[in-house]
Amino acid sequence: xxxxxxxxxxxxxxxxxxxxxxxxxxxxxxxxxxxxxxxxxxxxxxxxxxxxxxxxxxxxxxxxxxxxxxxxxxxxxxxxxxxxxxxxxxxxxxxxxxxxxxxxxxxxxxxxxxxxxxxxxxxxxxxxxxxxxxxxxxxxxxxxxxxxxxxxxxxxxxxxxxxxxxxxxxxxxxxxxxxxxxxxxxxxxxxxxxxxxxxxxxxxxxxxxxxxxxxxxxxxxxxxxxxxxxxxxxxxxxxxxxxxxxxxxxxxxxxxxxxxxxxxxxxxxxxxxxxxxxxxxxxxxxxxxxxxxxxxxxxxxxxxxxxxxxxxxxxxxxxxxxxxxxxxxxxxxxxxxxxxxxxxxxxxxxxxxxxxxxxxxxxxxxxxxxxx
Length: 372
Known about the structure:
The protein is mainly beta. Helix content is 2%, strand content 47%. Strands 9-10-11-12-16 form a five-stranded mixed sheet, with helices on one face. Strands 1-2-3-4 form a four-stranded antiparallel sheet, with no helix packed on it. The model is unreliable at 65-85, 109-114 and 363-368 (pLDDT under 50).
């Protein structure tokens, strides 16, 4: 079973790479943009046979790094070394049942000593999701069964902030997402609630010190989110399986064959969430089916239990109710995860029987299967 797909956003001249996790293995691939075929590059297997990896994410240590020359654009299939096709220093983080985050650093840029691995350990339960800060990708966020969210510096290994406590989640945190302006962190979990946390003031003030830390670092503890909304008025009490920012709105999913687009509305006394649009689906009434939002916020993709992948154009969502349905003739197992890669050229989906399906997204908006 493949639980998660993550990609490294390519710079000009870079090859497109992505990673998957399932069981105790994290695997990195290259995707060839001419035909959508994929090539395994590296694999990491946890020593603990009982480990189950749920989440992975890529990040760059210096997103502003300017390359002296373009990375290799060779389309050879011989399995290139990572230092050649990818420019700059980057990392791959993965975690799961054990609650330990493994961060594998790769030195594709100026730092020849960057190829090393670190382990981040502080959570008291399984880790369900990982995200990086959109502007400072050396900041890593983790959501855990222990009811907390943590923010880490992957430069130093220091935990910079903990989001938990008095008004925090009262059950597992399943999913997190950061808005485009990097001021808010949204979280959803098994307590049927969405919480929105501020990433300004206390949090931003600790970032520089956390990056520079080389000793024990005391994280800031945030117990009061800016906003809490229980969605039991929309769904019967159940967990929030997936949540993503779409501009200033939130897309959310539970286990009720539905994704809802929510708007934060200021009332007389407090803010509330109101449903702006409903995306009704079939065979999606189990948890851990994660939808994807394209980087340009135009497309949303979600798999279901019958092997279908459903795609909506969010620019037309309020006017039309059409959905694009993709089904590979040889795939009828559950689609767990979706990811848009290579500047939306491809959509990747993963299945319960450990297949990766690559769909070629044509400029016209029609999706065609490229490879499996």
